[in-house]
Amino acid sequence: MSSSTGAWPPPRAFWTDTLPAKTAGMTCAYLFKGVVPAWAANAAAVLDGFAAIRRARAAGVEITANARVYVGEEERPDLVDKVLAADGWPEGGFPAWMQEQVGAERFSLVLNTLESVSPPLAEGLGEFVGALIDGWGVPAGGAELVAFVGNYSGTAFGVHEGYENAFLTHYGPGTKDFYCWPAEEYRKLTGGSDPLYGDYTWLLEHGEHFALEPGDALFLPERVFHVGRQSEFSVSVAIPLYTLPDAAIARAWIAPDLLGTVLASEPDTDAGSPSLMQSLTAGPDELASRLSTVTAAALTAAAQQAPAAAQAHAHQRWHTVLSNGGWQQTEKDLARDEAATAFAAAALTPGTSVAVRAPYQLMVTNDQAFLRGCEAPADPAVLPPDLVERLNTGRTLLPDDPKVIAAIRTLGATGGLTVTTTPEETE
Q1: How far is Cα 399 from Cα 350, in angstroms, rounded to an integer?
Q2: What's the whole-number mean pLDDT along residues 90-118?
Q3: Any idea what DSSP says for residue 116?
């Protein structure tokens, strides 16, 4: 089954009406034909992102984005350094170049966190994610770009389960055959939930088949098993939506901060005083009693402070994701760092034209400013709503106000701003 949205990015009605209707309420896979225009995302942009990873490696710059190499279903860490360090490929010759590097006819190259090394893909597919957020909702962990490049006969991960809702966009030039199984059906067919490797051709006839051509987008609901196969070289980019379990967010971020606060034990405080020596003959019961009292008191205090802590975390997470254009927050973001460096080198004077880089947003709330997933102190009187809106929607000439220029300079360190013209060009 397939359908086309007919517009880019897909309009709000696609997310509120079409997508739920075609996917049985986001529970079934569905192929949307001709969704992604080549000018928004394409195979060349993905390879340029890989070139950026190679450039960072050559410069000794540590980044989060990474490459993984597979031959068949075997991951080959030993080949990663080789493909990162080798001389570049000739124009149009990437498949043959990659085959030479790995010493095999068929290969798979997986690129993670591609949005942090490819501004064109972050912007182009950011339009898709922005429309998704407006029409469907906000993934609390943001979205990621994961590229699958190669001529592999089967996804290196085997037939496996996807834990997040995702879209798989395809750019060709070859066609990708994709197969999906609902979790219950997969478990019935295979006897479990483990990935299936090797010869699983017997399973394919029981799966739902989709033929992805350039520009197509396949919706993959969470907890659906799937595998991709192809006979010709092609490039695809998955966009997983990291909603994250509420318990995982609380465990990873809220609870540690809360307990760290209520169990603070700085020296020269009652809580920081050393415990008494324990009597060998009395055993550990007295120590257990004291620890029980401290723990219970801390958990009681943490429970009382939990609503405020959850509110603060949700506020920060919400603005972090939205200001980052919907993308996940990445610590070692090459594109962000390069944009910040370029902005820092620009002379900011009255009349200089600046703008927020797409797809990011400047958001000012109380005394905080969020831009490209970063947070900075802000004075709403210096960054009033009308100025924020102008920066978000187009070129804005800086006023003759040192406080505004200083605030813009601070925000430029996020990598979320660009100088669009020089003062001379605006006269």
Answers
A1: 5
A2: 97
A3: G
Q: Is the peptide bond before 284 cis (omega within 30 degrees of 0)?
A: no
Residue 34 class from Cβ within 10 Å (0-12 exposed, 13-18 middle, 19+ buried)? middle
Dihedral of the alpha carbons of 195, 200, 202, 205, in degrees to the nearest 10: 70
Largest CA distance in the chain: 88
Residue 141 C-alpha from the chain's centroid: 8
Q: What is the mean pLDDT of residues 93-119?
A: 97
pLDDT in tens, 325-361: 999 999 999 999 999 999 999 999 999 999 999 999 9
Element (H, E) at 162: strand 160-162
Q: Which structure tokens are listed for 362?
A: 């400047």
The single residue listed with the structure tokens 């190499």 is 69
Instruction: Specify the DSSP class assigned to residue 114.
Output: G
Task: Give 118-148 pLDDT, tens digit per residue.
Answer: 999 999 999 999 999 999 999 999 999 999 9
pTM of the full predicted structure?
0.93
- Give the Cα separation of 52 and 117 in Å (integer): 6
Cβ contact 161:193 at 8 Å: yes
Q: Which residues contact 175 (CB under 8 A, 6 or more apart)?
A: 211, 212, 213, 230, 232, 234
Q: Could you tell me if 239 and 124 are in contact, meaning their C-beta atoms sit under 8 angstroms apart?
A: no
